[in-house]
Amino acid sequence: MQLQVLFIYGISALTIILGFVALLKQKTYVDPDTRKPTEIEIPIIGKMRTNYPALVFVFAGVALAVLAFNRSYPTPKEQWEITGSFKSNVDSNINWENGTIILFPIDFRTEISRKGNFRITAMIEQGLSFEDVIQSIDYSHVKGSVQIIPRNEFLAFKKEESSLVENATETGRKYKPIKIEEYQ
């Protein structure tokens, strides 16, 4: 476990203990203007006449503990694989490896073959999809380029409309051959 997380757990435990000690002492704070005990409203529990600074310590300690727990147990990731190919209407002898695939964001592994087949591999948090994480796929080559918006293509695929997505699994997508817009 990280040192930061242990430190946060320590502070959390200390604030919870201090809050409970203050609650056990039962010191009630008096409003200086009205000279009456301070009242606070807590959802579900209702109104309380209490020493609310002690409750602040308890709630702050619990919040810190939740934060530390979330940091020490991050959401697991799954490997995704996206495949497809590029094609040209004009030139069948394009060396596709000379082009570049750019993803936004860029922390994914991309491969492209001489024949235009591409593969994108990524570790994505469980519960998220490729379309949740990637905004666009851009391919550029001296002969042409294309931009794909994965979310739009997947939504069209799910609605059974015209889409570049050929097949979808839990952790993968297969795209149909994608025509590049060729430069004149």
Fold blueprint:
Layout: H1 3-25, E1 39-42, E2 46-49, H2 52-72, E3 77-87, E4 100-104, E5 109-112, E6 117-125, H3 130-133, E7 136-141, E8 144-148, H4 150-158, E9 165-169, E10 172-179, E11 181-182
Parallel strand pairs: 3-10
Antiparallel strand pairs: 1-2, 3-6, 4-7, 5-6, 7-8, 8-11, 9-10
Helix pairs in contact: 1-2
* Order of the strands making up the biggest sheet: 5-6-3-10-9
The structural class is alpha+beta
Rounded to an integer in angstroms, the radius of gyration calculated over CA atoms is 28 Å
User: What is the count of helical runs?
Assistant: 4
The counted number of beta strands is 11
What's the SSE pattern? HEEHEEEEHEEHEEE
Mean pLDDT across the residues is 82
Beta percentage is 25-35%
- The separation of the N and C termini measures 58 Å
Q: Kindly state the percentage of residues in helix.
A: 25-40%
Task: Please outline the major beta sheet.
Answer: 5 strands, mixed
Q: Pick out the low-confidence regions.
A: none
Envelope shape: elongated
Can you walk through the features of this model?
There is one protein chain. The longest helix has 23 residues, at 3-25. The chain contains 4 helices and 11 strands; from the N terminus they run H-E-E-H-E-E-E-E-H-E-E-H-E-E-E. The chain has 184 residues and is an alpha+beta fold. The chain is elongated, with a radius of gyration of 28 Å. It has helices at 3-25, 52-72, 130-133, 150-158; strands at 39-42, 46-49, 77-87, 100-104, 109-112, 117-125, 136-141, 144-148, 165-169, 172-179, 181-182.
